Amino acid sequence: MPTLLDVLKNDPDPFPRFMVAMGLYQFGPDTRVVSSLVESMRNDGDDDVRDNAMYSLDQLGLLDT
User: What domains, with CATH codes, occur in the chain?
Assistant: First the structure.
């Protein structure tokens, strides 16, 4: 998981960030996962990455939609 979190935060290519954001919820509500997803949802420069971070947070039951 640390490698995936690093990709989500630091990869210059949005596609790997997009893919990681989409699947991180599978690790469960680990605080590192949640923190990284919230950071990406709020600050990533790519709309699709932000949307996938939101999707994963929703899958974890952490968004009030």
Answer: 2-59 (1.25.10)
